[in-house]
Amino acid sequence: QVQLVESGGGSVQAGGSLKLSCAASRYAYNNTCMGWFRQAPGKEREGVAGIYTGGGFPYYADSVKGRFTISQDNAKNTLYLHMNNLTPEDTAMYYCAADEYWRRCPTIATSTGSDFKYWGQGIQVTVSS
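^ that's the sequence the OP posted. Answer follows.
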């Protein structure tokens, strides 16, 4: 069974921080491109960050570079997104995704995620001014 379950969202003031978690099944986690996407109301879904779980090199969208950090815990089959210095422009539904094709990761910053096979249900992040 392939499963991705997000947690850790919520509402914060601008300048605050949140940590998102994505608990994955073993098949979804091992040797896959795993990443985070987000979609704000009325906007296209966009790639935020990604990492190849077999190698561990991270990729980030320019809009979050220096503020967000993607990481993993192999013992827990869990992917994380640490979000710092949040702004109202970060308000969106955030999704965890995975795909077996490793080359999904280097281009995730310019991807809408349409080619990713496995998805979580999404979790809301709201940043107020």
